[in-house]
Task: inverse folding
C-alpha cells in the first residue's frame, strides 16, 4: 500500500493532539530506528515502530490509527528504554490504541487482541478481579476460530486446580463499577 | 562646566525604526535634557556616511559627549569610539544606548517600545554627562609562547611560531609527543599513512632550536596576564635522565614486567614498566611507570627500600651509560617557572573508551566489540598485530565485521548530545582498511545520517560503498549479544522498514570524541570558559574562533570541540598567527575599563578594610593582596590591589566591596546611580 | 496500628494471577510460605482489586490508572508504608500509575474523584526481588537448610521488573543481577546468559500465540545454550509462557529443552527446607523433580 502525503496531512494537528493527551513529543524523534531494531515483535508488524512515529510526525492519522502495529506492540518498553532521545514509544502506542478505539478504526485483522482486552476488562468490571475461566469463555465465544487453540491446556489447568469456575467478587464491586463509569 | 552632548539615533534599516519611533526618541532626548545640544537620526549609523556624520557633528557642534542609540555595544561600541577619536574626542565619552537587542527586537508594540527607548537614551545621556577621559593601558610583552599539548594541533602551532623566530615552550603530559594522530593507521580522505606524515613533524619539532620541549610534564599553575604570564610546570619524575640516556633500548628489553596493557595500543597490546610508548616516540627515551614497576611496587607494598639487594634493578644494571647511569630511581617531581607572553591550549580529546553505559552493547564485556581507536591500532603496521585485522578474543580474521556509528554521539539519553563529526569519515575509512586486508570479508555499517561535508569527503565515503563494497544500513543498533563465538547484532534498516540481524565476528563502535577527563579542572586552572560537554569555549563562534575567554590564551584542535586533522591543523595555524600578532608588538594596549582600589593620603592610605571578598568573587584572579608599609618596613595595613593586566572589567569586585573602595573605570557608582535616578524621577 | 507493627508488616497485593485456584497460584503459595520462615510479615490488603494489567493500559489510560491507584490508597488506609506486589505486571502498573498521578495534577484529581479516596504518594510499591534483597538476604544465609547440587540457574527477569527504568528504578535494565544474587545466596550456580530481559510476548498468550512461541523459544534456547538446567522467574506471565508452552515450542522447533521453570520463591523455599508440595512444585507443566532432587543434601 502506497501512502501519499499532501499538505492536508502535513498541516494537521495530529502530533499536537497526541502531545496534549499523553505529553509525548514526537518532534524529538530523529528517526534513528533503534526502537525498530530492538522490537521483539517488529517482524510481525505491518509498519515498523519508527514508521508509526513518522506517521504521527507527519500527521498521517489514518495510517497510524488503523495500523496493526499498535496492537502488536507487547508493551515490553524496550524501545523507550533504549531510545537515545527519550521518546516514550511504548507509551505512544498506548495512546494511539486508545484513540483508535475511540474513533472505531482499530484494525480488524487484530480483532483477537482487542477482543482479549475487552473480555479481560469485562471480567474486572463485573467482579473487581479476573475470573480466568469466565474471561477465557467470553474470549473464545467471541473469537470462535480460536476455540481449538491450546485446547489441551485448559483441562490440565483444571486438573492442577488452577482454573476456578467460581469467580471471586470483591466487596467494593460498586467502587469498581464507578471507576468504569467515570472512565468509559 | 556642563557637557555638550550629541545624541545619534540609528534606524538600523528597519530593525529599530519598525517598532520604535526614532524621530520621537531624538526629539525627546533634546527636550528633557538641557545638556543635549544636538540630536539626529540616521538610517545606518555604522555605515561610512553614518560615521562621517558623527565625526562632522562632533567638530561642527563642539560636542564633548556622544550617545549613539543603536545596537548592542558588543557590536559597534568600538566603531563609534574610534570615529569619535578620529574627530579628536577622548573615545570614552561615547556611550551606546542599546535600542535594538534590548528594545525593538523584544517589544512588538511601537508606543511601548518608543517610551522605553526614550528612557534608555536618557539613562545613557546621564551616564555620558559623568564620563571621564580614559587612556588605554599599556602592558609589556614577553616574547615567548607556551603550547600546552603535543598532538598535531600543538605541534603545528609550535612550529609555526618557532619558524617565525619566537621562542616556544611545549608541555606534554605523556612520555612522548604525537597525541592521537600518532596512533592512527591511515588518514582520510587520502589514505596516507598517519605516522609517515606525523613523525617528520615530530622530529622537526624536536630539532627546532626555538622550541623547548617538556614531556612527561604538566601545567601546575598559570598566573599573570596577557603578555606576562608566569607558568609553573611540573616535570613529573621520569626516573630516567634525559640528558644522559641515549635511548639504546637495553633497559626495556630486560624489564620483567612485560604484561602491562599499552595505553598507546588502546590496551590491545602490552608494554614493559620502563618503556617508550611507541618506536617513533619523541623523545626516544623511556620512562618508568612507577605504578607497575616491581621496584616501586616493593617499596610501596613491602616497604623495601630501592637500594635493597632483593629488589629488581635490572634496568639499572643493564644501562650502559657510565660513570653515572641514566636511570635514577630517586628522581622527584621538579617545578620550573617560565615567563610567557601568550598561551595556546591544544590539549586534545579523549575517545569514549568506557562504554559501560551501553549495557545493550554489552557495556564493555565482549572482547570482540572494540572502539574506533582500537581498530586503528589493529590496522596499524606498528600495532599489536602488525596491521593484521585479528579479533582480540582468539586472533581470528573476522569474516563479517559490523561498524556502529554514533556510539556516545547524538545520544542525549547517554548524556552526549553532540555529533562527533569525524566518525562518519573514519568508519568509511575503516571499511576500506578492512577490505584491503580481508579481501573476502563483509563490512556492514549501521548509520543514522552520513555527515561527510568536507573537501573530497562525499566522494570518499561513496567510494567505500561503490568500490570497496561496504554495505550501509540506515538504523541505530539496539542490541549486541553473544551466541557461540559470534556476536549477534540487532539493527534496523529504516529505508526498507526492516529489522536487521547480523551474526558478526567482530563489532567496531565508532566511539565519540569526548573532552579530556580533567578538562573542567584544567579550564578552571587557566580561567577559560567551557561548554556543557567540557570542551573549551571560543569567545565568538564565528568571528573569534580561536580566542578563549581569557586574553592571551588561544585554543587549537579538539580541546575546543570534535574536529578532524585538516581542521585541527588549520585552527592551530590560526591560533599561531594570533600569537604571532601579539608577540610582534613591544607593548600591548588594553581597554582601560578596569577596577581600581582607592589609595588615599596617610593616615588612611585606603578605605579598603582588607576583607578580600573581592578576591573571592573575582573570576580572573586579578586581585592581589598588597602590604602598605611604613618607612621602617613594618606593615601598616594589607589592602586589595587590582592587576590591570588581568582585570576584565566585569565589576563583581566593585559590587561586592563593603567599604566602597573599588571603582570600575567608566562604570563608577556615581554614573550608575545617575542612570537609575534618571528613570526613577521622571 | 503501632509504630512497632508498622515496621515489620508489609502490605501484600497478590493480584489475580497468583491467588489460590489461579494459573500461577504456586507463586503466591511459595511467596507466602517463604515469608512465614524468613519474613517480612505479609498482610493481604483488604478488598484489593485487579490492576487492569495490560488490557487497561493498552486501551484506557485513566481507567488503568484508577484501577491501580485504588489499591495503593487502600494500602495507605490500612496503614502500610510499603506494599509487595509479587506479580511484576501489578508492581509495574502500580508504580507507573502512582508516578502518573504524581506528575499530572489534573489526572490525580479525576482519579481521586473516581476512587473516592485520597491518593497517597508515600506508599512504596516493591517487587518480590526487592523485598528479598532488602529484608531477607541475611535470613536466607542463616536459615538455609539445603544446598542444591548441580543446579545451574538462568535468572530470567523479563520486561516488567526493569522497564521503564527511570520510573521503576530497579536494577540495571540491560543486565540486572538481583535475582542472580539470590540464586547464589541459596547455593545454586547463577548462569550468565544473554536473554535476562528479553520479552516473552507476555499478554499475547491467547490472542497471538505464534508471537509468544517464537519469543519464548529464543529464551529457552538462550538458557539451554548457556548451560542452564533450570530457569528462575519472578513473573506469572513469564512462567506461564515458558512452562505451559514449552512442550508446544519443542514440537514447533524440534528441539527438546525440558527445562523446569521455577519461581525464585520456590527455590528459596526449597533451600529453607520447605516441602515441595507446600511450595506448589506439583503445579507445574514441566516436571520439577530435577530441581527438587537437587536440594536433597542437608547442609552441615
Result:
Amino acid at each position: 500500500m502506497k501512502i501519499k502525503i499532501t499538505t492536508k496531512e502535513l498541516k494537521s494537528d495530529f502530533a499536537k493532539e497526541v502531545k496534549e493527551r499523553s505529553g509525548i513529543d514526537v518532534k524529538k524523534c530523529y528517526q534513528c530506528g533503534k526502537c525498530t531494531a530492538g522490537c521483539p515483535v517488529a517482524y510481525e508488524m505491518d509498519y515498523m515502530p519508527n514508521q508509526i512515529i513518522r506517521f504521527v510526525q507527519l500527521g498521517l492519522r489514518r495510517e497510524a490509527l488503523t495500523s496493526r502495529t499498535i496492537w502488536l506492540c507487547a508493551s515490553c518498553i524496550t524501545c523507550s528504554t533504549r531510545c537515545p532521545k527519550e521518546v516514550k514509544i511504548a507509551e505512544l502506542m498506548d495512546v494511539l490504541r486508545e484513540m483508535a478505539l475511540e474513533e472505531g478504526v482499530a484494525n480488524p485483522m487484530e480483532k483477537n487482541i482487542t477482543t482479549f482486552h475487552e473480555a479481560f476488562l469485562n471480567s474486572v468490571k463485573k467482579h473487581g478481579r479476573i475470573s480466568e475461566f469466565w474471561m477465557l469463555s467470553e474470549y473464545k465465544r467471541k473469537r470462535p476460530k480460536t476455540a481449538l487453540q491450546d485446547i489441551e491446556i485448559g483441562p490440565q489447568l483444571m486438573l492442577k486446580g488452577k482454573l476456578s469456575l467460581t469467580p471471586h467478587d470483591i466487596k467494593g464491586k460498586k467502587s469498581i463499577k464507578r471507576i468504569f463509569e467515570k472512565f468509559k | 562646566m556642563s557637557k555638550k552632548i550629541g545624541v545619534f539615533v540609528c534606524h538600523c534599516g528597519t530593525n529599530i525604526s519598525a517598532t520604535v519611533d526614532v524621530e520621537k526618541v531624538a526629539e525627546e532626548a533634546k527636550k528633557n535634557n538641557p545638556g543635549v545640544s544636538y540630536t539626529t537620526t540616521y538610517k545606518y549609523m555604522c555605515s561610512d556616511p553614518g560615521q562621517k556624520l558623527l565625526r562632522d557633528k562632533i567638530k561642527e557642534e563642539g560636542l564633548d559627549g556622544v550617545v549613539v542609540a543603536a545596537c548592542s555595544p558588543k557590536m559597534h561600541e568600538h566603531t563609534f569610539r574610534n570615529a569619535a577619536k578620529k574627530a579628536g574626542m577622548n573615545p570614552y565619552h561615547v556611550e551606546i544606548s542599546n535600542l535594538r537587542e534590548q528594545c525593538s527586537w523584544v517589544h512588538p508594540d511601537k508606543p511601548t517600545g518608543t517610551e522605553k527607548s526614550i528612557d534608555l537614551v536618557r539613562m545613557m545621556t546621564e551616564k555620558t554627562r559623568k564620563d571621564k577621559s580614559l587612556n588605554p593601558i599599556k602592558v609589556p610583552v614577553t616574547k615567548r609562547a607556551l603550547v600546552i599539548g603535543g598532538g598535531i594541533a600543538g605541534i603545528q602551532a609550535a612550529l609555526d611560531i618557532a619558524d617565525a623566530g619566537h621562542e616556544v615552550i611545549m608541555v606534554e603530559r605523556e612520555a612522548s609527543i604525537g597525541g592521537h594522530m600518532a596512533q592512527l593507521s591511515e588518514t582520510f580522505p587520502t589514505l596516507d599513512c598517519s605516522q609517515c606524515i606525523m613523525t617528520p613533524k615530530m622530529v622537526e619539532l624536536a630539532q627546532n632550536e626555538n622550541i623547548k620541549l617538556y614531556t612527561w610534564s604538566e601545567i601546575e599553575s598559570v598566573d599573570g596576564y596577557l603578555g606576562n604570564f608566569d607558568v609553573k610546570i611540573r616535570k613529573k619524575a621520569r626516573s630516567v635522565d634525559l640528558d644522559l640516556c641515549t635511548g639504546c633500548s637495553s633497559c626495556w628489553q630486560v624489564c620483567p614486567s612485560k604484561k602491562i596493557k599499552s595505553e598507546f595500543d588502546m590496551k590491545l597490546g602490552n608494554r614493559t614498566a620502563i618503556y617508550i610508548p611507541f618506536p617513533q616516540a619523541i623523545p626516544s627515551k623511556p620512562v618508568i611507570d612507577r605504578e607497575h614497576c616491581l621496584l616501586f611496587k616493593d617499596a610501596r607494598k613491602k616497604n623495601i627500600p630501592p637500594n635493597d639487594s632483593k629488589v629488581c634493578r635490572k634496568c639499572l644494571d643493564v644501562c650502559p651509560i657510565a660513570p653515572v647511569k641514566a636511570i635514577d630511581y630517586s628522581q622527584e617531581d621538579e617545578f620550573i617557572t617560565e615567563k610567557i607572553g601568550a598561551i595556546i591550549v591544544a590539549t586534545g580529546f579523549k575517545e569514549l573508551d568506557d562504554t559501560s553505559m551501553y549495557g545493550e552493547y554489552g557495556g564493555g564485556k565482549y572482547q570482540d566489540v572494540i572502539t574506533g581507536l582500537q581498530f586503528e591500532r589493529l590496522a596499524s603496521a606498528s600495532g599489536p598485530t602488525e596491521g593484521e585485522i585479528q579479533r582480540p578474543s582468539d586472533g581470528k580474521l573476522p569474516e563479517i565485521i559490523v561498524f556502529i556509528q554514533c556510539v556516545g554521539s547524538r545520544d542525549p539519553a547517554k548524556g552526549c548530545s553532540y555529533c562527533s563529526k569525524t566518525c562518519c569519515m573514519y568508519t568509511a575509512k575503516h571499511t576500506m582498511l578492512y577490505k584491503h586486508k580481508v579481501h573476502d570479508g563483509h563490512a556492514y555499517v549501521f548509520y543514522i545520517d552520513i555527515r561527510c561535508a568536507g573537501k573530497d569527503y562525499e566522494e570518499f565515503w561513496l567510494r567505500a560503498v561503490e568500490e570497496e563494497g561496504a554495505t550501509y544500513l540506515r538504523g541505530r543498533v539496539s542490541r549486541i549479544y553473544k551466541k557461540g563465538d559470534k556476536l549477534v547484532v540487532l539493527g534496523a534498516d529504516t529505508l526498507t522498514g526492516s529489522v536487521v540481524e547480523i551474526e558478526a565476528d567482530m563489532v567496531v563502535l565508532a566511539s565519540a570524541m569526548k573532552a579530556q577527563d580533567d578538562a573542567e579542572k584544567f579550564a578552571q586552572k587557566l580561567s577559560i570558559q567551557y561548554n556543557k560537554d567540557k570542551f573549551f569555549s571560543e569567545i565568538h563562534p564565528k568571528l573569534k574562533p580561536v580566542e578563549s575567554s581569557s586574553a592571551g590564551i588561544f585554543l587549537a584542535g579538539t580541546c575546543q570541540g570534535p574536529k578532524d586533522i585538516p581542521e585541527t591543523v588549520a585552527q592551530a595555524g590560526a591560533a599561531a598567527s594570533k600569537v604571532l600578532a601579539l608577540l610582534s608588538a613591544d607593548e600591548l594596549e588594553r581597554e582601560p575599563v578596569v577596577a581600581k582600589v582607592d589609595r588615599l593620603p596617610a593616615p588612611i592610605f585606603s578605605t579598603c578594610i582588607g576583607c578580600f571578598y573581592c578576591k573571592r568573587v573575582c573570576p580572573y584572579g586579578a586581585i592581589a593582596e598588597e602590604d602598605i608599609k611604613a618607612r621602617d618596613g613594618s606593615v601598616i595595613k594589607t589592602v586589595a590591589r587590582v592587576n590591570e593586566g588581568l582585570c576584565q572589567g566585569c565589576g563583581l569586585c566593585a559590587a561586592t566591596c563593603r567599604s566602597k573602595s573599588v571603582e570600575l573605570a567608566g562604570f563608577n557608582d556615581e554614573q550608575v546611580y545617575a542612570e537609575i535616578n534618571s528613570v526613577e524621577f521622571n | 496500628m503501632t509504630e512497632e507493627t508498622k515496621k515489620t508488616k508489609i502490605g501484600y497485593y497478590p493480584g489475580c494471577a497468583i491467588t489460590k485456584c489461579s494459573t500461577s497460584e504456586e507463586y503466591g503459595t511459595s511467596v507466602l510460605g517463604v515469608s512465614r520462615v524468613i519474613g517480612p510479615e505479609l498482610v493481604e490488603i483488604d478488598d484489593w482489586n485487579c490492576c487492569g494489567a495490560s488490557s487497561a493500559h493498552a486501551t484506557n489510560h485513566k481507567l488503568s490508572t484508577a484501577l491501580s491507584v485504588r489499591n495503593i490508597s487502600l494500602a495507605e488506609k490500612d496503614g502500610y508504608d510499603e506494599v509487595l506486589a509479587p506479580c511484576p505486571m501489578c508492581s509495574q502498573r502500580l508504580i507507573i500509575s502512582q508516578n502518573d498521578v504524581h506528575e499530572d495534577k489534573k489526572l490525580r484529581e479525576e482519579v481521586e474523584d473516581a476512587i473516592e479516596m485520597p491518593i497517597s504518594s508515600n506508599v512504596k510499591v516493591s517487587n518480590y526481588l526487592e523485598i528479598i534483597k532488602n529484608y531477607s538476604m541475611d535470613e536466607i544465609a542463616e536459615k538455609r537448610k539445603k544446598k542444591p547440587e548441580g543446579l545451574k540457574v538462568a535468572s530470567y527477569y523479563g520486561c516488567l521488573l526493569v522497564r521503564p527504568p527511570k520510573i521503576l528504578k530497579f536494577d540495571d535494565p540491560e543486565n540486572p543481577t538481583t535475582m542472580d544474587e539470590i540464586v547464589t545466596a541459596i547455593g545454586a550456580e547463577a548462569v550468565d546468559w544473554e536473554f535476562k530481559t528479553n520479552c516473552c510476548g507476555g499478554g499475547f498468550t491467547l490472542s497471538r500465540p505464534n508471537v509468544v512461541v517464537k519469543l519464548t523459544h529464543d529464551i529457552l534456547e538462550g538458557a539451554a545454550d548457556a548451560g542452564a538446567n533450570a530457569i528462575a522467574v519472578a513473573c506469572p506471565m513469564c512462567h506461564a509462557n515458558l512452562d505451559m508452552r514449552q512442550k508446544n515450542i519443542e514440537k514447533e522447533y524440534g528441539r527438546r529443552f525440558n527445562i523446569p521453570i521455577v519461581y525464585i520463591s520456590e527455590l528459596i523455599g526449597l533451600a529453607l527446607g520447605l516441602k515441595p508440595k507446600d511450595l506448589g512444585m506439583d503445579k507445574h507443566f514441566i516436571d520439577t523433580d530435577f530441581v527438587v532432587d537437587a536440594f536433597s543434601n542437608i547442609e552441615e
